[in-house]
Design brief:
globular, alpha+beta, 24% strand, 11 helices
Length: 373
């Protein structure tokens, strides 16, 4: 359903009766095509943690095969971006775990959010390695939130990838002592956005240090000019931090980016660290936006009555998106995306072939081996 971007359980159920779809499905995957009502019944009872472990094993295998080794930060750290997204709004009474908010007009809205940890690369991957639902469980004084969920997802990431060298990337919500403590305890590095209003005591030290700072570098390209400033060994409570600022001018528009990190910064790595901090936007673009608007229909209510099934559909979508990325970013597919040929067009041709053409287990248009540049 997700790989073929059918958009709903009903759509895939309807496809099973069209022309060659059912027999081609069995030829390609060597499995009988299940009815999606049967899948839903299984997902209502399956523990979501089971699919979480499957996802982690798939990612671990790819890491062991060195698929992303050449894309690591400073030739060592895997970039993991932490961010939350909304899945969908629901009517009152959907489940006891719903988050809720009340508008100024007194209208109460119920919804489900999830916190994601995605391994991202400069060349386009945004792969889920762990998920944590932001939800109200049991009795509570305050609703669950993203920062509370981070404590839980950190435990999951460490359990799934205990020895992986990780650099956590996060937005301006995260620079606080609790976040720094967790990263230090897990032996992770971090690069997080620092807003001007955050960590005021740190900003006071930064302003004083900048008066005498000698650490500055300029990079001039054909279309972009960048000026970097950085400071090391700044103290925030029990942590030593580095501050990095990038002022970028592009097409006469100037933008300023500021991050804090526990990495030591110098003239050789300042651009790599600053640029890496900005790659956190890939979780929005290649991650959430693709899953919501690229055919996966993340916000569709695949199970309206079962909270447990909803979580399983979400996780199987993440696994499908992993396979999707491995396919579309391969050297087999990328050369096809030239001129006005779009991925949406190629996907339509593929689904059309499965529906109307008699195919074997490995035709020319469906490569059995994929390689990356």
């Amino acid at each position: 359903m997700f790989l073929l971007k059918q958009g709903s359980r009903n759509a895939l159920n309807n496809s099973r009766y069209v022309n060659q779809f059912n027999s081609n499905y069995q030829s390609l995957w060597e499995l009988r095509l299940p009815h999606l009502d049967t899948v839903d019944a299984v997902f209502r009872t399956l523990e979501p943690e089971e699919l979480g472990r499957v996802n982690a094993k798939l990612v671990s295998h790819l890491i062991s095969q060195k698929v992303w080794d050449k894309t690591t930060l400073l030739e060592k750290y895997y970039r993991v971006v932490i961010d939350a997204t909304g899945i969908f709004s629901v009517p009152e009474g959907h489940c006891k775990n719903c988050l809720h908010k009340t508008s100024k007009n007194g209208v109460k809205t119920y919804f489900h959010n999830v916190l994601e940890a995605k391994l991202i690369t400069p060349d386009g991957f945004a792969v889920s390695i762990a998920s944590e639902w932001i939800e109200n469980v049991g009795e509570y004084d305050k609703q669950d939130c993203e920062l509370k969920a981070f404590k839980r997802i950190a435990e999951t990431i460490k359990r799934y990838f205990p020895r992986l060298p990780i650099c956590i990337h996060a937005d301006g919500l995260y620079p606080n002592k609790t976040f720094f403590d967790i990263c230090k305890k897990k032996d992770w590095r971090f690069i997080v956005t620092l807003k001007d209003a955050s960590l005021k005591s740190l900003w006071e030290d930064i302003d004083l240090e900048l008066l005498t700072s000698k650490y500055r570098a300029e990079v001039k390209g054909v279309k972009v000019e960048q000026t970097f400033r950085w400071l090391n060994d700044l103290t925030y409570q029990t942590h030593k931090l580095s501050w990095v600022e990038c002022v970028e001018t592009k097409a006469s528009v100037t933008t300023r980016f500021v991050v804090v990190t526990d990495l030591k910064v110098d003239e050789k790595n300042v651009k790599a660290i600053s640029t890496s901090g900005r790659l956190r936007f890939k979780i929005e673009n290649e991650g959430f936006n693709t899953q919501k608007n690229g055919g996966f229909e993340l916000q569709h209510k695949y199970s309206r009555v079962s909270n447990n099934a909803m979580k399983n559909y979400y996780k199987i979508l993440q696994i499908a998106h992993l396979f999707h990325q491995l396919y579309v970013l391969s050297t087999k597919v990328q050369p096809m995306l030239v001129g006005k040929t779009t991925l949406k067009h190629l996907w339509g041709l593929m689904v059309g072939a499965i529906t109307h053409k008699t195919i074997g287990s490995c035709d020319d248009w469906l490569p059995c081996q994929m390689r990356y540049g």
